[in-house]
Amino acid sequence: RPQEALVMVGITGTNGKTTTAFMLASIFRALGEKTAVLGTIYNDMDGEKRKSYNTTPESLDLQKLLKEMADKKYDAVVMEVSSHALALKRAEACSFDVSVYTNLTLDHLDFHKTFKNYLAAKTLLFSRHTAGGKAVVNLDDKYGAKIARAARAVKVPVLTYGIDKKADIRAVDIESGLAGLSFSVKYGRKSFSVKLSLPGRHNVYNALAAAG
């Protein structure tokens, strides 16, 4: 069980997984944590780029990578966890300390056949793979509340984020321009300012997910 030596973060959703994963890895690394990213573009082993064949590696490949990380004294791994991987049980041996939900739109129905199946696959990350961990969920997304209920049903604490709805973590005073974004993140009575050299409202959501 190499994952027991690592902080495991799994991110699922149709869009935003890759950006959120790299944002979160940069936060961990800024704190001095040796961190890997497993995802769509490439696998980033603390700065070393390795070819990625699937968004989420096959189960045996995944366990080999986690074993390598544990042996090399990594602190954390941030993984994109695709609906394919959840449906095909590639992450079956994994339990995540934090699971993150970004959003859900029509996609991958060639594989899942129905949207109901697609949503059910995403939900598995929270209902099956986050025992003892916590969930971070986009409350503004149409299906966010349903994901949050599925997590709470198995006693997983949920932290919500959003812009429009009354989430636990919110972005306010958003300004967008050619140079990127600036906004404030509010969490209870606390707040802090964020500047991103990335455009678009979708990247506010990605940053909120990483902050969560």
Largest sheet: 11 strands, mixed
Number of helices: 7
Contiguous low-pLDDT stretches (5 residues minimum) are: none
Order of strands, widest sheet? 4-3-2-5-1-6-7-8-9-10-11
Helix fraction?
Answer: 25-40%
Structural class: alpha/beta
Question: SSE order in H/E notation?
Answer: EHEEEHEHEHHEHEEEEH
Features:
11-stranded mixed sheet, 212 residues, alpha/beta, 11 strands
Task: Please explain how this structure is put together.
The protein has helices at 17-30, 59-71, 83-87, 109-112, 115-127, 144-153, 201-211, and strands spanning 7-12, 35-38, 42-45, 48-51, 76-80, 98-101, 134-138, 158-162, 169-177, 180-187, 190-196. With 212 residues, it is α/β, with parallel strands linked by helices. It starts with 6 loop residues before the first strand and ends with a helix.
Would you kindly provide a brief summary of this structure?
By secondary structure, the protein is α/β, with parallel strands linked by helices. 33% of the residues lie in helices and 29% in strands.
